[in-house]
Amino acid sequence: MRIIETKTYEDMSKQAANIIASVVTLKPDCMLGLATGSSPIGTYEELVKKYEAGELDFSEVTTVNLDEYKGLPKENEQSYYYFMHDNLFDKVNIKPENTHLPDGTNLDSEEEAARYEALVQSLGTVDLQLLGLGRNGHIGFNEPGDSFVEPTHCVDLKESTIEANKRFFESADDVPKQAYSMGIGTIMRAKKILVVVSGEDKAQALKDTICAPISPKVPGTILRLHPDVTIVADEAAMSLMK
Length: 242
Fold this sequence. Notes:
Largest sheet: 7 strands, parallel
CATH topology: Rossmann fold
Oligomer: single chain
Strand content: 15-25%
Number of domains: 1
């Protein structure tokens, strides 16, 4: 596990974008695993800048997203489909048919989880998986629990996650209570994993991910078993590691 500390969120975003850009440059038809939430927004902004400067070409890139809220239509501004198009897909030359997310409108949990898992596996191996880190240590929507769930599955979101995400909705009552998420096994199959972490509110989760015993109670700890993980964290997120 490699840890890169940056001064600010902006520096973190630039570092992460540089790592992703190097993968795309070296392998133009790479497969990227992508994340949503506030942490990677700056990274996507930097990738768009590189594309606009003529430094990056996404025309052969394939993407698979970690997760999607169950029950939200694509046009809902809080859906991750909307997020990805708003922050990246509509701003670069990626082909729509090469972008993949779980279908939040499919309310048959078993069917959709099986469909998305089969799709991801059929596309090959993810070259680089981008992750954020939840305040409770979750990766994707793999919440703290009694065991690691291997494949894509439907998750009952923890109250702490609903509370953390309510800022994106009118109230906590509007936050979906379930989501589809790649499982730990799906995530860990990626060749490289890149984790972006920002802010003091993530400091404990980051410290636990790096230092706590490997346990599903802190899902991020499993990343220590992967052979190629890079964490890029700003000073605030690293504040408990001094």
